[in-house]
TrEMBL record:
GO terms for biological process: monoatomic ion transmembrane transport. It comes from Microbispora rosea. Residues 268-360 form the CASTOR/POLLUX/SYM8 ion channel conserved domain. Coiled coil: none annotated. The chain crosses the membrane at residues 21-47, 84-110. The lineage of its organism: Bacteria, Bacillati, Actinomycetota, Actinomycetes, Streptosporangiales. It is found in: Endomembrane system. GO terms for cellular component: endomembrane system. It is a multi-pass membrane protein. PANTHER family: ION CHANNEL POLLUX-RELATED. Keywords: Ion channel, Ion transport, Membrane, Transmembrane, Transmembrane helix, Transport. The keyword Transmembrane helix applies. InterPro entries: CASTOR/POLLUX/SYM8-like, CASTOR/POLLUX/SYM8_dom, NAD(P)-bd_dom_sf. This is Trk K+ transport system, NAD-binding component.
């Protein structure tokens, strides 16, 4: 290669200085302006000495040249000889080019700065703030719920980092969430997997970090990479809450995040909720009411005065809170045996409107024995369930259902999904049959003889995008409800949907339960972001190995048609080994946002129940 010439070296040096940005360009313009002023002044002193003397010599000529370079209009007021006017004209023409270039450079530089500010690349200077990393539909639920939780707090901040345009994020949240009250949102553009971008959010002083599962291919890989980036950073490590889409990735995520991460298994929780809802109508509504911040919230409370008391007696301990269970050194137990003794180090799991309202009761009225219905244990019988559609969590749903039903039960899977019926080896109680069917076709549904089933589960087809899948689910629900009305058949219908906004449309179908999995996961993440210590409580609540939420017919517990205090229902449930936490009024089951669910009711207030109402209890299946 030939040696670089002087011209090439000069060009290379010039290019490097120009690449330094707006400041370098302004510097070059200043240098060119200085050269122009010096040259014009020298020519004036040399060619027109009389005009130079008239303008006070060198200082005056330099000032005159500067004014003509910066303000070309000055030439209109000049007077003198032709050479002097020609020199000033040259200064003005040179000034026109310099000022034009300067205006363009300043405009481009200012536009670049504005674009940089729009992207949100400045560091967040906050303390005690909640950080959300990533973007998904769950973000709107989390922001909405945290806004409710912080409604009485001044200076509450939620900082969001996502690979999106900052104004676009703010507009989307404003459109979906609305007014955030006293909670301030701070959006930053960046990649949650990049340590440099994470430094923008002052994570060391954050209260909690929430990692969202993105809406892209292989979302768990993105979450795990983010957890690795969080684990490797220096400084304080606040609690981390993350959602994992596939259960098989839980071990890898736990290893990546370390002991300070609380993981939510989205697939597992959604599958359990669908199974529980299919067997007891209203479970998902109750769970969503437990998880949101609209009404009651779950707290862990230690009261030394309750040490030595049995769990059954502690159910009457609080005037404005409902006892759910205990947190012992061995872990959380909801609805423990009534004779369980509360230890000095145990914490009470309670449901209350607010922690500031929790107080011990001075005394409670006894249960009214006249209204308590004796417990009866119906003999278990085989069941017939119809599953319409198939998706990635269908096999898990069937396996969980197999643990609930009695031997001899039948599950028929009807759909046109190519993977329907796969991965079902080792079932103990269920016999599974697969049938070809288009679940949106009325005639295909009628050919199934849906009236012979007790339960129908409608799954969202994962071959389609969420919006189209919800549309197909709505079509199926409408067909089933019309068939029930026309043929006089009776069976429960539970459906799975993606978009919370479609719930209002789905209510027209009068489905017994609608599970919005993304909303449930968003509510759970919001609860853990507010109090990570509740992870044990919710893990137990959604685990089939212990007690779960069940809405059960009120007539199985107390007499209907007359006023009954909730204290009487608590006693009736306790005699069955259950913990009553609320009720659901059938007449209001279609009214949002609670759909007739009342949790943590006033124990002394009498309510008149009618057949069709439900008592919400924690019980083993």
């Amino acid at each position: 290669m030939s040696k670089a010439t002087v011209k090439e070296r000069a060009r290379y040096w010039f290019d490097n200085t120009m690449a330094r940005g707006t400041a370098a360009l302004i510097g070059w313009l200043a240098l060119v302006s200085l050269v122009l002023i010096v040259v014009v002044s020298a020519l004036t002193m040399w060619l027109t000495p009389d005009e130079a003397l008239r303008h006070d010599g060198w200082p005056g000529v330099l000032w005159l040249s500067l004014m003509h370079a910066l303000s070309p209009g000055k030439i209109a007021g000049d007077a003198g000889t032709a050479p002097f006017l020609a020199i000033m004209l040259g200064a003005s023409l040179g000034g026109i080019f310099i000022v034009s270039i300067l205006v363009g450079v300043l405009s481009a530089g200012l536009r670049g700065k504005i674009d940089e500010l729009r992207k949100g690349r400045s560091r967040v200077i906050e303390s005690g703030h909640t950080v959300i990393l990533g973007w998904s539909e769950q973000l709107y639920t989390i922001v909405s719920e945290l806004t409710k939780a912080h409604a009485s707090q001044h200076g509450s901040v939620i900082a969001i980092l996502a690979d999106r345009d900052k104004p676009a994020m703010e507009d989307a949240i404003r459109a979906r969430v609305g007014d955030t009250g006293k909670t301030r949102l701070v959006c930053r553009t960046g990649r949650p997997t990049e340590p440099g971008d994470l430094d923008l959010l002052s994570l060391s002083t954050a209260r909690t970090i929430v990692v969202l599962s993105p809406e892209k291919e292989d979302p768990d890989a993105h979450v795990i990479k983010t957890l690795l980036a969080l684990a490797k950073r220096a400084g304080e490590h606040p609690p981390v809450v993350a959602a994992i889409a596939a259960s098989r990735n839980m071990a890898a995520a736990r290893l990546a995040g370390g002991p300070g991460v609380h993981l939510v298994d989205s697939d597992d929780i959604a599958a359990r909720l669908i199974v529980q809802s299919s067997r007891q109508s209203g479970v998902s509504v109750v769970c969503m009411d437990l998880l949101n911040f609209d009404g009651g919230e779950i707290y862990l409370r230690r009261d030394p005065s309750l040490a030595g008391r049995s769990y059954g007696r502690a159910l009457d301990a609080y005037a404005t809170a409902t006892v759910l269970g205990l947190r012992t050194p061995g872990g959380v137990v909801l609805n423990p045996p009534a004779d369980t003794t509360i230890g000095t180090s145990d914490e009470i799991v309670v449901l209350a409107q607010d922690d500031s309202l929790i107080r011990l009761a001075n005394g409670t009225a006894p249960a009214d024995e006249r209204h308590i219905v004796p417990a009866t244990a119906p003999a278990p019988a085989p069941e017939r369930t119809l599953m319409l559609g198939w998706n990635g969590r269908a096999a898990r749903i069937i396996r969980y259902l197999d643990g609930y039903v009695t031997p001899g039960s039948v599950l028929d899977v009807a759909g046109d999904h190519p993977g329907a019926g796969a991965g079902l080896e080792g079932l103990r109680n269920l016999t599974v049959n697969v049938k070809e069917c288009d679940a949106t076709d009325r005639y295909a549904l009628e050919s199934l003889g849906v009236g012979v089933y007790q339960h129908v589960i409608v799954l969202s087809d994962d071959r389609y995008d969420p919006g189209h899948a919800d549309n197909r689910t709505l079509m199926t629900l409408l067909q089933l409800r019309d068939m029930q009305a026309t043929l006089g058949e009776k069976y429960s219908i539970v459906s799975e949907m993606h978009d919370e906004n479609n719930r209002t449309l789905a209510e027209v179908t009068e489905a017994d339960d609608i599970v919005i999995s993304d909303t449930v996961i968003g509510l759970l993440l919001a609860q853990l972001a507010e109090n990570p210590h509740l992870a044990e409580v919710f893990t137990y609540l959604f685990d089939s190995a212990g007690s779960e939420v069940y809405p059960r017919p009120v007539e199985d517990y107390v007499t209907t048609g007359g006023p009954v205090a909730f204290r009487t229902i608590v006693e009736s449930a306790l005699r069955r080994g259950e913990t009553a936490i609320g009720y659901r009024a059938a007449a209001k089951s279609g009214e949002p946002p609670h759909y007739g669910v009342v949790l943590n009711p006033d124990r002394s207030r009498a309510v008149t129940f009618t057949p069709g109402d439900s008592v919400i209890v924690l019980a083993e299946h």
